[in-house]
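Notes from hallway chat w/ T.B., transcribed later so I don't forget. T.B. wanted the structure written out for a chain they're using in a teaching module, and asked if we could keep both sequence and structure tokens in one place. Agreed to drop them here.
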Amino acid sequence: MESKGAVLTGEHFISGNEACAEGALAAGCRFFAGYPITPSTEVAEHMAERLPEVGGTFIQMEDELASMNAILGAAWAGAKTMSATSGPGFSLMMENLGLGIMTETPCVLVNIQRGGPSTGLPTLVGQGDMMQARWGSHGPYEIIALSPSSPQEIFDLTIKAFNLSEQFRIPVLIMSDEVVGHMTEKVIIPPADDIKLTPRRTPKVSPEKYLPYDPDEDLVPAMALAGQGYKMHVTGLTHDRKGYPVITEEAQIELVQRLIDKIRKNRDKIIEYHEDQCEGADVIVCSYGISARTSLLPIQLAREEGLKVGLFKPIVVWPFPEERIGQLAAGVKAFVVPEINYGQISLEVERCAHGKAEVIQVPHAGGGIHDPAKVLEAIRRAAK
């Protein structure tokens, strides 16, 4: 791939990992800190090559703990920041992910999932980190996580992730997988003027009146940057609107309730999904990432057999589209949920269906994608 010191445009034949890196650059990311780990390393390698060309900075850190800390710190200095990792590194980043949530630091964290647990299958696919994405750090909180199923989609969703991180002042996760990351397809990169970016929300009051955690009407506070003359105190401890630690039940309830509400009360602005022939269907295949693409052939074959089958693909997995799943459950016999784990998002579908429709898991341990014949078999069983 040739570059001329600027963000690329036009049609390119690139991998999902490279598309992710180019999406970050198009979104304005100018700082990347990371540690090499298969199968996400190409994201870091591409950023290492491209960031200096656009005036950005790449740092290889000593480990994933430091990588997550570095992108938080660079965000407070004014940069749009990102890191990328896979299973074991994702586990190590969980503590500082919680720090980013508590300090309301915008950044993007990419997880190119592989087979686990432990070091597992470094070069082969998995989707076993979906619940860790939701609950991996400790304490009550909300998170935003997106799941792409193609190189084009990972490019587009990386831009969306940066916009969401700035809009809601929160670390945003991209939960991809090894197959999407290493898949090579055509990716169309639009001109920069056609890409809508969300700017960082800056204070509208003087430094003397500024409170770092005084929220606007949408519950998100403006963010001053280090060195701009504003008084700031950034801590992972429960804090008041000045940012000072206050270790009381009252302070905890006020702060954490707002952190949760700023996502829950804006769910309609965040949630995104794709539907195909779900209205009037008897069976809906609910899947995400590479498993959604694996499901396309069995869905087509089932329709050729005369079965009424729809596809529901969560694009934003967290917050989960529970209201829409509940609506669809009232009109179908069953959901079929193929995913490369032994039941994570399928349990969310079951929860949201409220017993109105059966939920049939199509599990896979990892190392490869689903056999389409097994998905077709599950669709047939659901239809009966």
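Follow-up for T.B.: The longest strand covers residues 107-115. Might be a good example for the class.
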